[in-house]
TrEMBL record:
Organism listed in the record: Paenibacillus silvae
Protein name, UniProt field: HTH-type transcriptional regulator YesS
Segments forming domain HTH araC/xylS-type: 717-814
Domain of life the protein comes from: Bacteria
PANTHER family documented for this protein: ARAC-FAMILY TRANSCRIPTIONAL REGULATOR, HTH-TYPE TRANSCRIPTIONAL ACTIVATOR RHAS
Transmembrane segments: 20-47
One Pfam family linked to the record: HTH_18
Keywords for the protein's UniProt record, in alphabetical order: DNA-binding, Membrane, Transcription, Transcription regulation, Transmembrane, Transmembrane helix
Amino acid sequence: MTVRLKHRPEWRATRHKGRFYRNSLMLILLIVSIPGLITGIVMYQLVVGRMENEFNRMHQSQIENRAGNVDDQLAYLEMNLSHWAFEPRFGNALRNLDFIYYFNETQEIVTTLYVLQGSHPLIQSAQLYLQEPKPILFNRDYTELTDSSLAAAYQRYLTMGNHVYWTDWRPGSKTEAIGGAEATQDKGPNSVQEQSLNQSQEQTLNAAQGNPLVLVHKIPGESIHPFGALIVTLDNEKLASLLKTLTPYDEGLTFLMDGEGHTLISGDSDNSRPYTAFEQQLKEEVGLHKDSRSFLFRYEDQTYSVSYGTLDRIDSAWTYVSAAPLNAITSPVKLISTIIVAASAGSLLLGLLLSWFASRQIYSPVARMLHLLTPVRSDSESDRDRETAGAGLDEFELLERQWHELTSRSVSAHRQLQEHLPHLRTSFVLQLIQGHMYAYSEEDLRQRMSHLGFELEGRQFLLVQMYFTGYDQLQGRFGSQDKGLVTFAAVNIIQEVARAYFSQSSVMNFHNLTSAMLIIAPESESIKPQARIWAEELVDVIARTLRLNVTLMVNRPVTALQDLPGQLVEMEQAAAYRRVEEGSQILDLEDEQCFRNDEGASYPLGLERELIQTLRLVHLSEAEQALAAFMSDITGAGRTEFQVQQMMLQLLGSIQHMMLQTGVTPYTLFGGSNMYEQLSAIREPVQMQEWMVREVFLPYIEEIQSRSQEPLKQVVERTMRYIEQHYASDMSLESCADLEQMTPYALSKAFKQVSGSNFIDYVTRVRMDAAKQLLRDTAMRINDIAAAVGYQHSYFNRIFKKQEGITPSQYRDLWFK
């Protein structure tokens, strides 16, 4: 007997080994020989020179794009400040405003400055200076400038520049306005000459001191006689960081200068290197290359790619200059190309020797991977099928295809798990607290919850149940069938509020204006006080958003998951002790005061007798009023939901006893429904009252009325048949009443009650139907038709047009068109 061992077929590896071996050997030989030398020579001879040109071109493109970004940022600041300057709150009303008396306006201005300061990341501070009614400065608060020198310093902003201008002058600074924006009318010729001689030195000193740029807009924005100014000071460090983006690499120099060549701010990446001389020469070279926006500049045996451009500001034109050293990229390329040439020549021989060995060893991991990832094929699969499946593919292509398939399945499975995980978590917790998992041990429950992503080690559990009341007050916004929708909205609010308080929680939706939440917290935390704070916020949010009241039940914390179903039952039983008149309530099952019983609660027998008497008399409106008085009495102060339900059940029993006395069987009247069970399921007093009227009062009154109206119904039916047979003759209510031996008033009332229309309206409708039939089906004259239906001609035309909106002739013409 021969035993054949079943094993994984190795046909694929055997079939492809020759092809892969030859391809890998040829590829390795090609890689280790020629390309190394060619690459080194080409990089050394050609690439370095082209790299310099390409770097310069790339530098230009990057500089233009980033300079546009800087320009957009500054332009946005100008536009934003102009927008605020034209706001009515900064208008002429501020000129004579008493800011101490009108505290709200003062606070609004301070708040506006805070908003302006936060409107752009480059803004360091925003100030408002008012010259009138007295020197006042708004910054973080309201400040009266009692120091005359400081007031004069801020007054300078109103004499400098145009209505909107840039400057790097601040109170206490010696810097002049950018582009000569400062007013010089108070200076003599000698002062102007001294300023011209020392201007470069002052700008260098100010740049070293780091004076920030200031954007000033005089207010009111539309006035030619401003009395104040909005002063926005930029953050030098952030502006320098923004300017530094004009240099593609860490090395180099970037700076911004005004129209007179003074440096406004520098984005130098190496603050320790003295760039003063280098900066000065760059400025001179920029002046010599006005026709081109880029050039190569050599300084101290270093070649720089220099780019510059203009940023048109609201009152001047600034120039940005960016210089990046070419050797930052070309030096490594030269070194690497030399190393490549030397290493390629030295390793060529060794590579040829090792390539043969590597080509043999390289197949070993491929075979193992193929063995792991390729599925086992059955013995019945033919060789032709196998060859067709792998035709034109080597091992790597087969592995790639299999890997993509496995990855796609893994990603799809992970995505589906993430989509369904929240529902799985909620469903599991819902089944747990409802007691459907009583057969599982504590260890099994914890393990299952851990698999769903819950952290349970060293945790305690707190169960909270919520009842949403006051739904009847929302009937204008929601219908009677929208309870599930309202509950869904409330559950979403619960989840949002809970995220701010608890790291782990799960909210269950019961879809009947009730929900529950399981809170998982460390055992070391005092969870109930925190749950109390959360509950108060939740009650407030739901009251404001959904206009609902919340009865929130909090049980004691437990450490065992198996205790949760019993806690849910306790809370459902304790819910009957909520105070019906108190609106939203937070009840702690450990607090006995929340469930005290009012011994003084008494049943209103007098109101019950009054209510039953009105029902005996079949007076629906009076019965509804009596029921409202009864409900008002039993829902008084201190009454609980349990007490209200018991009194309503007693009232229902009394009403059914009265029905039996009047000959109405409640079982037959209510179709065999358990009315006590339906009433017990209602929690809100308003809904109890509506249910009592709808399900008890109305069926009983309709039954009594139908019994009393049976003879009248027969009289009305005979009268209606008489009208349909004698409508052509002259008839009246009195004549029909005489036929039935009734008074006209009694017949008219009965006719209205049974048929739903008046006697005259019914006669008119019968005659009009007959007239329209004659107009459609015969060629009779209008006068003859009027006589045939019991009308005179003139009255017939008038009554026909009143009923149908058109004359009889028009009706006939319309029908035969």
